[in-house]
Amino acid sequence: MNLLTYEQALGSEDGCREEYLMYEGLRNTWAGQPLVRKNMLIDGKWVAASDQATLSCLDPYSEQEWAEVPVATVSDVDHAVSSARRAFDSGIWSNAPPAARFAALRRLGQLIEDNVEALALAQVRENGKLMTEMVPSTRAVASDSHFFGALGEMTHGYTVEPSIPNFTAYTRREPIGVVAAITPWNNPLVLLGWKLFPALAAGNTIVIKPSEVTPVSTLMLGELIEKAGIPAGVVNIITGAGATGQALVQHPDVDKIAFTGSTQTGVAIAKIAAERQARVSLELGGKSPNIVFNDANLSSAINGVIGGIFAAAGQACNAGSRVLVQRGVYNEFLERLSQRANAFRMGDPLAADTEIGPLSSRAQMAKVTSYFDIARGENLNLAAGGVRLDRPGLFVSPTVYADPPKASRLVREEIFGPVAMVMPFDDEQEAVTLANDTIFGLASGVWTQNLSLAHRMIKKIRAGTVWVNTYRMGGHVIPFGGFKASGVGREMGLHALDQYTESKSVWINTDAQS
Ligand code: NDP
Question: Span 179-187, mean pLDDT?
Fold first, then answer.
C-alpha cells in the first residue's frame, strides 16, 4: 500500500509536477541498454544461484525485459538461512546495544534518502507504478527506517508488584531469531521496510525473498544495507520464483515468517509454519467497502473513491473495490464516477501527467481480464471500461460495474485491478450489512458530514482500518493490518516490534536468605 492519497501522489495539490518533468526522456536512454544483472546477497557476498539459473524482469510499460536475477536453489536457500542463523547466534546484531542498531538504521535511512530517485526508478521499471507516486513512497521508506530504529531503542517490557511477598516480576522482549520476509510486487520497498526495519531494530536477522516481479529494487536496497555497515549475514536477500518461497518457509531454522500477498498463499504459509510453531504475520487480501452517504461532500467522496480504487491501477491490498452509495446520490455519483473513469490519462509511468500506469505483470493482466470475462458471463451492468487497451503495454481501462448482485464473483473476490463495483444502499443498517458481507476485513472508507453516523460506522465495520472522509491515508505511527481473512497481526505503529520479539517473564525471589 502507499502512504499518500491519490491527489498528493499526483502532485496536484502542491503543484510539484514540474519536479517530475525531468524523468520523461529517460526511457530513450534505456532503449538498447544491456540487461541489468544483479546477484543475491548471502552472508555478506553477492552470489549467483549455485546452478546459475536466472529469471528475467519485464518492464510492464514497454513489455521489454530489462533485468535478470538468480533463481535460488534449495541449497542457496539453506545457505542464506544458515548465514542468518550464524549471524543471530553470534550475537553480533542480536546482542548489540539497541542504540548501535538504531545508528545503523539511521545510516540506512540516510542512504535511502540519498538514493530515492534510483530506487524509485527501479520500482517504476519493475511494476509500472507512477514515478510521481514512487518518489514520495520511497522517501517514506527512509523515514520508516528512522522510526523503527528509534522504536528499537525503546523496546521494553513491564514490571509488576506481585502479591506474593519477597518476589518481584517483570517481562522483557527479546528478538525471535531468524525472520523470513516474503514481500510483494505492488509496493516493493515500503512493504519490505515494514518488516525489515522492525525485525532489525529488535535484533533479529533476516532472509528476504522479494516477488519475482520486483527483485531489483530490493537487491539495490541490499547494496545500501551493506554500505550502512550492517554486519554480514544479518540481512540476506534471495531471489527466485515458483519454489523459493516455500523452501524458505519450510526451513527449520526460520523462526518467524512475515508475508504480504494473497490470502491463498498466506494460508499455505500459515499451515507450514503451524507444523513447527514458527511465528507468522500475514498481510493479505481485501475487498474493502468505500461507503458514500447522502450527506457526503460528493466531490470529495468521488475523489476519494477514485483514489481508493484507481490509484496504482487498483493493485493495492487496501483498494476500495466495493463502492457503496446511498440511494439519494447513487445516480449522480455513478454518472460522475463513470465520466471520470473514462477520462483518465493513461501512459508512461515516468511522465509527470500520467494518472494511471500499466498493470504490473502479464500474470496480473491475465487475472484482471479474466474478471472482465466473468462479468460478461454474469451479465453485469458495465458503466465504464472493462477492456484491455488496444495499445502496447499492460494497460486495462479503469472499470466501473453498476449495481452487481451481491453474489457476483467480482463483488466477492479480490481482483487487484482498477475495477470498482458500485452498489446502492438505502440506510445505515444496509450499509453495515453490505460492508461486512465479505470474508475480508482489511480497510474501509466512510463519507459523511454527520459525526455521529461516522462514529457508529467506525464501530460497526469489521476492518483493520476505517477512513472517514479520506482514503488510503497512512503512516508509520498507526498500525496496518486486517480482520478476518485479511491477515494476522499488525505492521507499523507503536507495537510493531511485538511482531518481531518474544516476551520473556522473569520472577525474582528478593529474599536473599531463602
Ligand atoms: P502470492 O500471494 O501468490 O505471493 C507470491 C509470493 O509468495 C512469491 O514470492 C512466492 O515465492 C511466495 N509463495 C508462493 N507460494 C508459497 C508457499 N507455499 N510458501 C511460501 N511462499 C510462497 O502473490 P502473487 O504475486 O502471485 O499475486 C497473486 C495475487 O495476490 C494478486 O493478484 C493479488 O490479489 C494478491 N496480492 C496481494 C498483495 C497485498 O498487498 N496484500 C500484494 C500482492 C499480491 P515463489 O515464487 O518462490 O513461490
Answer: 98
Ligand 1 pocket: which of 262, 288, 370 to mutate (most atoms within 8 A of CB): 262
- What per-residue confidence (pLDDT) applies to 16? 63
Residue 512 has pLDDT above 90, yes or no: no
For cell 516477488, what's the residue? 211
When mean pLDDT is compared across 3-7, 46-50, 95-99, the lowest value belongs to 3-7
The pLDDT of residue 4 is above 50 = no
Mutate to test the pocket of ligand 1, among 218, 264, 265, 472 (most ligand atoms within 8 A of CB): 265
Domain boundaries in the chain?
41-63+73-284+487-503, 289-475
Residues 6+ apart with CB under 8 A from 509: 166, 167
Q: Residue 6 has what pLDDT?
A: 43
Binned at pLDDT 50, 70 and 90, residue 32 comes out as: confident
431 CA distance to ligand 1 middle (Å): 31
- The model's pLDDT over 429-452, given as tens digits with 9 standing for 90+, comes to 999 999 999 999 999 999 999 999
Of all residues in the chain, what percent carry a pLDDT higher than 70?
97
Quick one: cell of 66? Answer: 530489462
Predicted structure pTM score: 0.96
Residue position matching grid coordinates 470529495? 300
Top-confidence residue, 306 or 5: 306
Strand intervals (E) in 150-200: 159-160, 167-175, 178-183
Whole-angstrom Cα distance, residue 236 to residue 79? 10
Which amino acids bring their CB within 6 angstroms of ligand 1?
182, 184-186, 209, 211-212, 240-246, 249, 260-262, 265, 268-269, 283-285, 317, 364, 367, 414, 416
What is the model's pLDDT at position 19?
81
Question: Yes or no: is domain 289-475 CATH 3.90.1170.50?
Answer: no
Q: Can you tell me the distance from the alpha carbon of 53 to that of 296, in angstroms, rounded to the nearest whole number?
A: 55
Catalytic-residue membership of 317: yes
User: Check: CATH 3.40.605.10 for 41-63+73-284+487-503?
Assistant: yes
Give the C-alpha separation, 402 to 423, whole Å: 6
Atom number of ligand 1 nearest to Cα 240: 47
Mean pLDDT, residues 216-238 = 98
Identify the active-site residue in 133, 317, 355, 414. 317
Q: Whose CA is nearest to atom 13 of ligand 1?
A: 245
| Mean pLDDT of the 53-64 span | 98
Q: Nearest to residue 480, comparing CAs of 321, 323, 320, 318?
A: 318
283, 355, 414, 491: which one is catalytic? 283
Active site residue 161: no
Question: Ligand 1 atom closest to Cα of 285?
Answer: 41
Half-sphere exposure of 136 (CA within 13 A, CB side): 21
Ligand 1 atom 7 nearest Cα:
245
